[in-house]
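Run log, item B.
One chain of 355 residues. Sequence copied directly from the ordering sheet:
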Amino acid sequence: MNQEGNSQPLRQILNQGVLLHRMTNRIRQFLELQEILAVTVGEVRSFLNTDRVMVYRFEADGSGEVIAESVNSHRLPSMLGLHFPADDIPLPARELYARARARTIVDMNSQQIGLSPLRDAQTGNPLPAGDIRYRPVDPCHGAYLKAMGVKSSVVVPVLHQNQLWGLLVSHHSEAQFIVDEDLQLLQQVADQVSVAIAHSKMLTEARAQQAREATINRIATLLHAQPTIQLQAALEATVAAFQGAGGRLYIWRGAMAHPNCELVTCGVGPATWGEGELEEHPLWQQWLGSGFPPARPETPPPGSGDIGAITDIYKEAQFLLLAPAFQATRIRGLLAVPPVGNSSCPGNPFKGGES
């Protein structure tokens, strides 16, 4: 009896160490965050022997989505891909998860919830990791878990750059006692997920930078490395890079007026405005020169050297006279890139984007 009693904690410690070691290796093995999360929920559910483990990610508005899950579908339904409103986890609870890094344990049989914060919610000072404070579970939260068929749950916050990113959640359809050592292990797993999120962000940014550089090099080759300048191909590549519906490239041979302008187009474009081509409309000509709203309000308009943007042409008061020319198209937003360099011979690409 004594030997068995002593060996049980030892096996538990060994299992915890194996899980954490395996988790760390998985994070190093996989580059994609979704693969890491899929492995995480599977390993944690196997270790805890619970019916469902999931990763819940918060959106900027406080709502959330289950983005990874391991579930025993014979005991609990899948929640993967489900979205939940911000009110399901109110702001005070989200702030407590973020500020205090509070972990929660709910036991529906005893109608108790255990709160185990790692930091003092007011001062931010560290607290003992094993300090679990029990109180009666909120009736609304209890009813919520009961409706899902859950009798016990464990929730550990996942942070990224000291902000609440999501939750690591374990649900079980029966009462289950969670020892402090298991809770601390879940915290370590959540910390490893935080590391994986940081790596994933860096990988995504690096890939985006590589894609931008490849696009710039491809367009630069069309404009500078060919025997003749490939304006049509360069415009099409530029519009595709912005995921636009169509584009217009204006090249002025002197004054910025329609008769002196060479026009190159691709994709979807506006129709005539009743009396002629769009380029003949005085308001369009004015905007091509200097009148487009700048992408950043504190900066000057495109004619002064800054990029201009209209998010929705049908909500822009000054654009109402020209909006009918776009009604037959998918175009909703416009991006105007001004000439760079010698203003005596400018080229002004104008891209129409589909929203």
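Observations after the first pass:
- The two ends are 70 Å apart (CA to CA).
- Residues 180-224 form the longest helix (45 residues).
Flagged for discussion on Thursday.
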